[in-house]
Prior knowledge:
By secondary structure, the protein is α/β, with parallel strands linked by helices.
Amino acid sequence: MSRVLNLPFDGGIVELRVPDSWTVLAELGPKPMQGLQDVPGALREALEHPVGCAPLSEADLRGKKIVLAVDDITRPTPLHRFFPVVVAHLVERGASRADMTVVHALGIHRPMTAEEVDRKLGAANLQGIRWVNHDSKDWSKLVRLGTTSRGTEVGLNKHLAEADLVVCLGAIEPHLLLGFGGGLKMIVPGLAHEKTIAQNHMQGVSPEQFNYIGSESSPMRLDLEEAASMLRKRIFIVNAVMNERLEPGRFVCGDPVAAHREGVKTVREMAARQVGRRADIAIVSSSPMDADLRQGMKCIGNVEKCVRENGMILGLLACRHGIGDVAMPPKALPHWLLRRILRLLGKNRILWFVDKVKKGAAVEERFMAHFSMQIARKNELYVWSRKLPSDTGKRLGLFVQFQDLQAMIDRAAKVAPRHATVYLFPHGGVTYPVVAGP
């Protein structure tokens, strides 16, 4: 016998028929947060009452060079809804659109196209404002600023060093490495040299602690905030807190650390869900982080802490743009063999293994391989997606891929305990568990 569970997926609902013998301990969605009825009005209010610093209205911005650091197309932040409000606010304080430069904080992602920039920010909103893509490899476009106390060599985009004011526009959401995104993440890794990104990404990563979701003070967060402070420029953040429908529910503006921490309080209240024990299985939808494989896989990392050792995570990944810019290896070990090797190696030797099998891997690939292998060592990973190429699972080796959703559930039913315990995460892209018990 079976029963039907419903999960939101890619703008609709999918049905899962699971065994009657499974016990669903809880459905863990984000706590409700209404989208703002008046986005421009709420943002103007936040701009006039910033956290931790004086408002920009007290500054004379005539003749000042202003950099607007914005996230790229892989992020779901609806910048077109609040970018023009920020620009108007700056112009009202004497700034000229001709003195503004939008720099897309790509990190090591590919450049944005003109069509993507128009879609992200709104073509009309960019009138009179130039925009550029960040280049993390070209030192002629960056400046060296020294080394952080944690050993990260800091190279940042030259536009930042030439600016009188830097305004970072983005969103705060749960983040596997930083605890929470937003804040000065737009500077590092967003506008940093690839070596800076590489060294910052590996801060605090260890066999014991490779997932910092929900932490306010991960080593990477503290390191990047120190790195950004080396600019010695005024940096002002404009961060949205969004609900599971990607509607802004609150804005925090002001000091890049104090305002960020204030926004984190709201995100934690919405996204953190308390659970009393670990389950055998987590079934998680990538919603609303549905852009591509890189974003979709975050939901698996978000929920892994609530699954017992050798339990299962079943991921429903929308991946509307397929694999995105994830580097696909020409070949990989079969999942069953890779998992057996990882379990024999143990968690302490997985980074060593990554560096052996992925010599010369790019920074994000190295980190993601370590992160994914740690989870694959701990849990069986099954993935279903309509948009991923059918050989994605085989080429990565990190998960078993299914073309049919019910086939994934049926396979899990054969492998899991007959009386398996289950957590459901309908919006796993913006939800994470906090486990109170063993």
